[in-house]
Amino acid sequence: MSETTDALLHLPLKALHEELGGKMVPFAGYEMPVQYPMGVMKEHLHCRAAAGLFDVSHMGQVVLKGADPETLALGLESLIPAAVLGLGEGRQRYGLLTNDAGGIRDDLMFANRGDHLFVVVNAACKAADIAHMQDSLPGIEVVEITDRCLLALQGPGAEAALAALAPEVAEMRFMDVRTLSIGGAECWISRSGYTGEDGYEISVQAEEAEALARALLNQEGVAPIGLGARDSLRLEAGLCLYGHDITEDTTPAEAALHWSIQKARRNGGARAGGFPGAEKILAELETGPARLRVGLRPEGRAPMREGVTLFHEDAEVGQITSGAFGPSLQAPVAMGYVPAHLAAAGTALEAELRGKRLPIRVDSLPFIPANFKR
Amino acid sequence: MKFTEEHEWLRPEDDLIVVGITEHAAEQLGDIVFVELPEEGTEVAKDDEVVVIESVKAASDILAPIDGEIVEVNEVLVEDPSKINDDPMGDAWFFKIKPSDPSQMDDYMDEAAYAKFIA
Predict the structure, then answer these.
(1) CB of A331 less than 8 A from some CB of B
(2) A23 at B interface, C-beta within 8 A
(3) Residue B43 located in a structural domain
(4) ipTM of the complex
(5) How far apart are CA A38 and CA A40, in angstroms?
(6) Lower CB count within 10 Å: N or C terminus of chain B?
């Protein structure tokens, strides 16, 4: 409530959100729909059962170009531990921008789109990320795409809804990217998302975004979904929220994101290291981190949110970094960091809520099995 | 019926006051997922935090609107907090309080004043 609304940036689809009854709130400097009249709980369940349309145009869309594909790939590899070289054209991967201490500056998706790399970064980090890439990648043009919206269509009904407009999307597998024309609009489509469900993310020219959004909302089973449900969906799916579950002070191994560092970039690999914090990050992959991000299930009904302290046998052992009520589980769910020896699923801990120590148990992630089309 | 600026309603019932939250409050809170009620028999003072409710968005406290003794709580809400969104002004009352000073009720708004307050 402390944020004022007058300095906020507006999404190109603001009028559509208002027409749909979206409740607009400040988020990462943008005025964003947190929910529609359906409400967070029903929106969440609708997305898991049918399909949800999210406007995530606040996120940063960045193109790396102006050099040959190998130079582009090796350039990005100098900033992230993921393998970029070897990612096939038309494929996307998850990556982390790291800092010299081995912490995480941001998490991102990058796609090989032939003559360029397309990168999607978090809204709150985008200015810093772009400056960082521009400063660090001489000879590569780092261009922020400011004239395109980003829509996400998520849920088991996403394929049918988007295929009604562009049948080719049914052939795409998880993390495929394609350029397709929908109603004359050039769409950059990936089969990916942030809900744990099958679905697509679609970059489209801002002036063509409203027609696309309306066409999708007209498909059977597609409802608009706000930021509130986006957060509970990603939490149930065990996905990190930057600035909360991962920060400048958490490492890839601590965050259990070791899978985002392919063999070629690890010690003994063809292109080992060469990214900020590599020495610490790669050593930690081998020795194991002292603490780990884990799933947590409070045993009562009370949601336990970010900042709640975790205890084991009266000793403070960690904190919750994300927590909410999980509508699909009809129970509270959380993520947080605990010492590695307390990270096994089933470990009984306590969390302090309103002055009381309550039982909470380590659980494996994701809470809801992913429903991707591999 | 009386209303507080904290969006509670207070309905006299015999010598007790029944307390709940208004339709407006329930809408603002969003889907309610958790309720913690006080123990029956608790003596409370005005503005004590007596009930905790959590919606999908955040935790909120419900304050005792008057001094008195909590004589009955609505346990059904603990099992099914969504009742608060379904019928906040009716079945989904939180507690009944036996006022120690019934004149404290005079401080609160009537329905017309509350309607103006939230407009």
Answers:
(1) no
(2) no
(3) yes
(4) 0.83
(5) 7
(6) C
